[in-house]
Every structure is written in structure tokens, then in C-alpha cells.
Design brief:
By secondary structure, the chain is an alpha+beta fold. The protein is built from 19 helices and 16 strands. The radius of gyration is 26 Å and the shape is globular.
């Protein structure tokens, strides 16, 4: 049967209205989903700010679009200037992915041969090792060149505050005897990336700073990034702080310009770090072939289950609920109160960037914990809102009222629940007391930590050390033995027992 023109027009109008309604519904659902992620991430990060003293900026992206970006706490505590989304942070070892990317940019242009010996470019470097170490081995921490940043004498003799010519610093701190044959093992070393920066300067005939600007910052529009110099005024710069119990302090000065070249001398905003992250999904900086070099798992990393790419740790994160394995790449950095992490999930083009300017000293484990919880949130898995840490409460009572009151407070709070026993932070607090000569108080804190986690070999090892420092030989032996029982691979406990006269 034939249908009238009016009927066709009515059908067309209805179809058009239906499509408009469907598009509107899809838009509302998309907005609602983004708002839901924003709200939940904000609840999670706010809890870290309130309960873990997190101060800094967090950026979260999903499918390449920013879904959350917010600052917390103070960029400058003295003047109470807040952290904002364009605050510039020292990013410490997150400099290394930039040095690696710049090296590969120059390799693609034929200026650097990744498999050439480093003496090809650094002709004044000691030839007995320079002829055996390749550029690739510097990039993957498989060179065998020792890491000056972990030498006690490097910090005790105070060279981080001193000025050095490039050649002098290399001679003193980047030319040590190899700790293993190149390519046969891995050991993280700032010296590797210092040398890479020098190679970049040699082949480009300009400074590392200018090379970064020409081939990385300017093409990506990274206007809030640069290299730290002693004489440089950095607008909107965050200052780093250390937190000891309830007390904030300023870390010792470090001459980044001379001692962290290419390894930890950059500053950036989280937005600029995100621009860099996104450029590693397309061919803005590198062709697909050369870009993929950055994320190939070349050698074992110091992070459990991870491998070294070029400047990145690459591996798998196992989600809690579904046990699904997702590929990740991350770059962490820590120095002078700053902790920065760029955490990439390539299959969903998700990125988590955290820049913190208050830290406990070493790489802040709470920043990685926050990354994992946000990851679980993004995948629809269960995640945990952090509880207040018990450590600050114990520290405040210990300082004001002494050991007995602190122990009573601990037992009361532990029994009441609602607090994180925070054993890693408690262990760090115990060592701060020990280093300050407050030995009896350190013993008390380590004892409480054993109660918090009686299955921890490290807790008993620390308690053993505090007893040993106090001269309680039998108690030291007892706790080192317990540590060794829980972890037969604990060589420190074995060594301390031998020192105490126990076979």
C-alpha cells in the first residue's frame, strides 16, 4: 500500500527527534560519568591531603582527556601561597624520561648511535671503561657505572652544595670502577644520565638546557618547564619541605645545576608533564619505531615486577578485584622534599600525574599508594580511602608527655580503630629518633611497630638495631633472630648477629 507524503514527513520528524534524544542522552551520560570520576578522585585525594599531609597537585586523564586536576596545600608555607594547577615543581628523576626522549630524538636524526661506546662522544672519559659501555647501557642502567647519589661520602662531604666544572664532576663521581661487566646486570645510577646529558651537549654543540628547549619543550608548548639553575628565578615555583611528625622543615640546599645534570635538574607543572605524556602516543616527537624504544622492557628494574625501558619503568599492574593485568609505565622522582610520579596506562590512555612538595625524605610510598588507588577507581575496582595515620598522634604525645603516655595513646587508638597503623612511617619515625640520639624513645616506637605488624621481619630488624645501639645485647640478639626467622634472606640480621658474637 502506498504511504502519503505527510506520513513520510511525520516519520522523518520522529526519527530526527529520536536521534536528537539519543545524542542528548549519550552526552548526559558522558558528562555524568566524567563528573562521577572527578567526584570520586577528589574524595580520595582530599583524604590523602587531610590524613597523609599530601601537598601538591594531582592530574588524572582518561582516554587522553583530563578528568581531574587540582592543587592542595602550600607551594610556599612561609607566605601561605597555595599550590595551583600551574605551580612548577622540581621533578627530580622524572627528568630522566626527558633525557632519554631527547637522546632518542637525536638518535633518530643520526646524531647518536645507541650501540656506540660512550668514548665515541666523551673522548676525555677513561678509555678502559668508556670503550666498554654503550649509550644503550646508560639508558637502561646496565652500564656498571656506580651511583654517586647513594655514596655516604657524597652527602657527608657536602658536594651537593658545591660548584663543579663538568670535567671535574665526571672525574670525581661518574668515573668509578665498574661494579659489574656492562650489560650483565642492572643498577640504578644517576651517573648514567649525567653522562647522557654530556653526550647530548657534545653532539648538538649547545647546552643540555637549550637542547631540551629546542627539541622537547618548544614543539610541545611546555611553557612551565625548564632546567634549574642557581641564578634562575622560577615564577610560580613550589618549595620543598620535609615533615617530621607534626613539624615541617626545609631540606638542605642542593646544587642541581652541577650535580644532577640530566638526572634530576628539571622543573615542570603537571600540565606540562601531561603534554609530554600525550606526545608519546603520537609522532609529534618521534616516529613510531623510535618512540617504542622508550617502552621496551630491556633490563630488570629496581621496582618489583618492573623492567627498565629508556627512562621509564615498564611492567604490569594486577588489579585487586578482577586480577586483570594491565600494562603500565611509570617514572618516579624524589629529592629535597619533592616526590613526582608520572603513571601511564597505555591501553586505556589513562595517566596519573602527582607532584608533591612535602615528603618524608626518600621516595614517598604514599604517592605510589595513591596512584594505585586511583588506578583501581578508574577501572571500577574497589579502592580504599585512607585513614588518619597514627604516627603524628604518637609523635605529638611522645614529645609533650613522654614514652608512657605515648604507649597508652597507641593502645587506646589501636583498640578504637579508625587509624592507619602506618608501619612504614612508624619505622621511619623510629629511625629519626635513633639518629637524634633519643634511643629510649626509638626503642619504644620500634616496639610499638612490632605490635602493629608482628609478621614484619623489617620491624624486628629495626627493633634489634635500637637495642644494639642502647647496649642491650641479649634483646638485640633476640630480635635479630626473630627477623631472620621471618625472613631467612635478611643478610643484615645475619651480619648483625655475627657482629654480636652469634653464629
Amino acid at each position: 500500500m502506498l504511504r502519503s507524503c505527510t506520513t513520510f514527513r511525520q516519520d522523518a520528524i520522529l526519527l530526527s527527534l529520536g536521534l536528537m534524544f539519543l545524542l542528548l542522552l549519550m552526552t548526559v551520560q558522558t558528562i555524568t560519568g566524567a563528573e562521577s570520576i572527578d567526584r570520586r578522585v577528589d574524595e580520595l585525594v582530599t583524604a590523602y591531603h587531610e590524613h597523609r599531609a599530601f601537598e601538591g597537585v594531582v592530574l588524572v586523564a582518561d582516554k587522553g582527556a583530563v578528568v581531574y586536576e587540582k592543587g592542595f596545600g602550600w607551594a610556599n608555607r612561609e607566605w601561605q601561597i597555595p599550590n595551583t594547577t600551574d605551580t612548577r615543581f622540581l621533578i627530580a628523576s622524572v627528568t630522566k624520561p626527558f633525557t632519554a626522549a631527547l637522546t632518542i630524538v637525536l638518535a633518530e636524526r643520526g646524531k647518536i648511535d645507541l650501540h656506540a661506546a660512550i668514548s665515541t662522544y666523551l673522548q676525555d672519559y677513561r678509555r678502559d671503561t668508556g670503550d666498554r659501555v654503550t649509550v644503550h647501557q646508560l639508558l637502561t642502567h646496565s652500564s656498571g657505572i656506580p651511583n654517586y647519589a647513594v655514596w655516604p661520602q657524597f652527602w657527608n662531604d657536602n658536594p651537593p652544595r658545591m660548584n663543579y666544572e663538568r670535567a671535574e664532576f665526571v672525574s670525581r663521581y661518574c668515573s668509578g670502577d665498574l661494579v659489574f661487566e656492562p650489560g650483565e646486570d642492572t643498577q640504578y645510577s644517576d651517573a648514567n644520565y649525567y653522562l647522557l646529558a654530556l653526550i647530548i651537549e657534545q653532539v648538538t654543540e649547545i647546552s643540555y638546557e637549550k637542547a631540551l628547549a629546542r627539541w622537547i619543550f618548544e614543539p610541545l608548548g611546555m611553557e612551565n618547564s625548564g632546567v634549574v639553575r642557581e641564578d634562575l628565578i622560577i615564577e610560580r615555583r613550589a618549595y620543598g619541605y620535609l615533615k617530621r611528625g607534626g613539624t615541617y622543615s626545609i631540606p638542605p640546599y642542593i646544587n642541581y645545576e652541577d650535580t644532577q645534570l640530566g638526572a634530576g635538574d628539571m622543573y615542570a607543572s603537571v600540565g606540562d608533564l601531561f603534554r609530554f605524556d600525550q606526545a608519546l602516543y603520537d609522532t609529534t616527537l618521534l616516529s613510531t619505531t623510535f618512540r617504542d624504544f622508550l617502552f621496551e622492557p630491556h633490563t630488570f628494574s629496581g621496582f618489583t615486577g618492573m623492567n627498565n625501558g629508556y627512562g621509564w619503568n615498564v611492567g604490569v599492574e594486577t588489579l585487586t578485584d578482577t586480577k586483570r593485568e594491565v600494562q603500565i609505565a611509570h617514572a618516579p622522582g624524589n629529592n629535597a622534599g619533592f616526590t613526582t610520579v608520572v603513571y601511564r596506562i597505555p591501553e586505556t590512555r589513562r595517566t596519573i600525574i602527582i607532584a608533591a612538595n612535602v615528603g618524608p625524605g626518600p621516595l614517598d610510598p604514599k604517592v605510589f599508594e595513591m596512584c594505585r588507588e586511583i588506578t583501581h577507581l578508574l577501572f571500577g575496582e574497589s579502592y580504599s580511602i585512607p585513614k588518619p595515620s597514627i604516627v603524628d598522634q604518637i609523635a605529638a604525645v611522645l614529645d609533650a608527655q613522654g614514652i608512657e603516655a605515648a604507649e597508652e595513646t597507641y593502645h587506646r587508638m589501636k583498640g578504637a580503630g579508625g587509624y592507619d597503623l602506618d608501619t612504614n612511617a612508624m619505622n621511619r619515625y623510629g629511625y629519626r629518633l635513633l639518629q637524634a640520639g633519643r634511643v629510649d624513645e626509638a626503642v619504644a616506637v620500634f616496639r610499638l611497630n612490632v605490635l602493629s605488624d608482628p609478621s614484619s621481619a623489617n620491624a624486628y630488624d629495626s627493633l634489634g638495631e635500637s637495642y644494639m645501639t642502647r647496649g642491650d645485647r641479649l634483646l638485640a640478639i633476640k630480635n635479630y633472630r626473630k627477623s631472620l626467622e621471618l625472613n631467612p634472606s635478611n643478610e643484615n640480621a645475619r651480619k648483625m648477629l655475627h657482629k654480636l658474637g652469634v653464629d
